[in-house]
Amino acid sequence: MDVETKIGTGFKGPPILERFSLKEIFSIFLDLDHENIPEKISPSCFVREMQMSTEQRYKKLVNPLRKLNFEKELCQAEIYFKINPNIVVFQKCQIGETYNIRLSVCNSSKILTPLRMTCENSPYFKVNYTSPKVITSLAPGMSVYFDVKFTPEEQRDYKHQITFLTEKTSFIVPVYAIGPRPLLDFPDAVHFPKTYVKVPAIKMLMVSNIGEVAAVFSLTAECPFTVQPSKYALAVGEVMQVNISFDSIKTGNYAGSLIINFVTGEKLVTSLHGMAENANIMLSKETVHIEDTYMGFKRQTTLTLHNNSDHIVHFKWGKYQSREEEGLQMDKIYQDEVKALDCEEFLFSSHNFSLIPLTGEVWPNAFVEVTIVFNPDEAKDFQTKSYCDVTGLEDRIPLIITGRGLGPLIELNLASLDMSLIYLCSVHSYEGDIPGTIVFIEKPLVFGGKVECTPRSYMLVPGDYKVFVLNFSSAKEGDFFEDICFRIEESQEVVSFVMNIAMHITCTVDSLESNGPMPAFGPVITRQR
């Protein structure tokens, strides 16, 4: 049954009556200055003060060593009078029984001072002079006594006051009758054993209501402490289980408070103490280089995460170095998306690297193997970084992963070629593990002319061998040196060879015949091109 259900409909017990807050009189109970009204009270102090009888309270209030401070007006009156006790308190009273407290007022001045007592009529309180004669003036050092009687008709709080009048001033002595309060036996302090960062330590408390009325209250704890349940209703004599957790994301000593808030306004505080440290958890290596891998292929290696502690630890591989960096990302999204992003957006992801598993747990004094998969899609160097967030460690462990992607390995079967003919047959060979496409690069030649390649490209499988036919033509004479280039499409790598060309054209005239006169040609000239 949840807490709200128990408080709302499932809880059966004595009615919880409206009461005044004890905060205003607890400074008197604890003998504190008027300005130091306690905001929070320890559970044992509250139980001790509430379990006092009227007689025990009276003896404590009339103790001559006590500070007699309460209302401001009462403090001023004590310049002329000594009031003892300066507050009248009835507690742990039974219905129908009459209880009596004697109140004394002593003239502490050096002059005769008139004094008159008055109070409103009440069916529950009676105030009478102890002497048969009503005293209207007090000589220096003289005291007058009053009997304050209280008869309760039900278990609840009562409040009354007695007013004293003089020629110059007046003052009031408050009268309280404290009804029964719920009393919970929470400890004053809870100390957690030393634990690891991000590894929760839990203290289970069995708390009972040792008071005379039902207790309705809420529980809150200061970070990094938490408490369950947060609300509860506990009948008289009933026992409940309270779980307090200590879970710190940083190392160090911590102190906090467990606040017990009663519906009647009282606040009790239990101090909480814990210490967190780093566990002995490590990666086998924090930098991993994966061997060169061809595009489209996968290569994998492994590393180990060692847990040398006595706790089960949980890990996850994330993108960011710290919670602060994740917080900056969370600030950019709506709150209802945070949970989904915690599982997806903040986990490590890469187009070319994978970590398997991304999340998991490691048992005490054991290790888990993490597989790193490299899948390059380009011929280049790759690098990525991931951060291992482990319960037990304050800082995330960085992991750097590097690898090189290789394209198809296509080679030409020559480095240079000397040509003396117009037509050239050029042979290419291909080696490697993956298919590739080689394409002739058409470009302007340095020395002019034109090179045509047939075919313009080949798709080669591993171990394949193909032939390109090159056709060169030029209108210039002389020796030519040209770079002939091909491009491997998958890696954009360029392979080339140097083509040396020397073309000679010889024209020879042996004789000419004619039936007519011979024209003059001049000397025969041999020309090389």
Automatic annotation (TrEMBL):
It is found in: Cell projection, Cilium; Cytoplasm. Gene3D superfamilies: Immunoglobulins. GO terms for cellular component: axoneme. One of its GO terms (biological process) is axonemal central apparatus assembly. The keyword Cytoplasm applies. Residues 182-272 form the HYDIN/VesB/CFA65-like Ig-like domain. InterPro entries: Hydin-like (IPR033305), HYDIN_VesB_CFA65-like_Ig (IPR053879), Ig-like_fold (IPR013783). It holds the Pfam family Ig_CFAP74_1st. The keyword Cytoplasm applies. Keywords: Cell projection, Cilium, Cytoplasm. This is HYDIN/VesB/CFA65-like Ig-like domain-containing protein. It comes from Timema cristinae.
